[in-house]
């Protein structure tokens, strides 16, 4: 089977980057881990994984990733932030730290559902995916507000926003990489191809 023409990088500073690589490999997507800013040069899309958002953002700052990521986005690179990654790409947080990168015009709240023991799964609708997907929420953020340019892709039954997109920037509160489904990864690969 031929690998996809697009190349997806997974930011591998902290968090569950290996799980994203595993899903992409299973989909036969050309993918790579990204540990240095110069490794962004030959990718078409970047996944910022779940993990600890303050740590991930400190490492993004320490290794001067933010400017490089923004430059690549201006040239058409897609970005997908999952859980902690969504926190890192938001325009604004309701908490003082970390300072997000302002890649998607949304306000996000960290750890909305509580501690690790409050983790849960839910079958949710996701715009652009026909069947419901299993979403895993682990110390997950939520999206409080979006600008009119941001498309809401997914909500919980109570109306809580957990999936958004603005142009080629995707954000999810949940962890598709551990759900057993590849549907959201396929969605991101197709978004990257656009």
Order of helices and strands: EHEEHHEHEEEEEEEEH
Q: What structural category characterises the helix and strand content?
A: alpha/beta
Query: Treating each run of at least 4 consecutive H or I residues as one helix, how many helices?
Result: 5
What's the Cα radius of gyration?
A: 15 Å
- Uncertain stretches of 5 or more adjacent residues: none
The tally of strands reads 12
> Per CATH, which architecture?
3-Layer(aba) Sandwich
CATH superfamily: Class I glutamine amidotransferase (GATase) domain
Shape: globular
Distance between the ends: 22 Å
Approximate strand percentage:
25-35%
CATH topology: Rossmann fold
Q: Can you give me a brief rundown of this structure?
A:
By secondary structure, the chain is of the alpha/beta class.
Could you characterize what this model shows?
This protein has 194 residues and is of the alpha/beta class. The protein has five helices and twelve strands. It has helices at residues 17-26, 53-62, 65-74, 84-89, 183-193; strands at residues 7-11, 30-34, 45-48, 78-82, 90-93, 104-109, 120-126, 129-137, 142-146, 151-155, 161-166, 169-172. The chain is globular.
């Amino acid at each position: 089977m031929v690998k996809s023409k697009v190349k997806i990088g997974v930011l591998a500073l902290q968090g569950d980057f290996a799980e994203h690589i595993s899903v992409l490999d299973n989909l036969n997507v050309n993918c790579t881990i990204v540990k240095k800013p110069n490794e962004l040069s030959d990718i078409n899309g970047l996944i910022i994984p779940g993990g600890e958002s303050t740590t991930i953002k400190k490492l993004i700052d320490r290794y001067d990733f933010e400017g490089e990521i923004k430059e690549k986005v201006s040239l058409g690179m897609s970005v997908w932030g999952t859980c902690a990654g969504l926190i890192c790409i938001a325009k604004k947080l309701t908490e003082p730290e970390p300072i997000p990168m302002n890649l998607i015009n949304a306000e996000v709240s960290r750890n909305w559902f509580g501690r690790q023991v409050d983790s849960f799964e839910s079958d949710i609708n996701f715009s652009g995916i026909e069947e419901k997907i299993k979403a895993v929420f682990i110390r997950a953020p939520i999206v409080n507000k979006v600008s009119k340019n941001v498309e809401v892709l997914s909500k919980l039954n109570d109306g809580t926003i957990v999936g958004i997109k603005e142009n080629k920037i995707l954000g999810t509160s949940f962890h598709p990489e551990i759900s057993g489904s590849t549907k959201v990864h396929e969605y991101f690969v197709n978004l990257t191809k656009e």
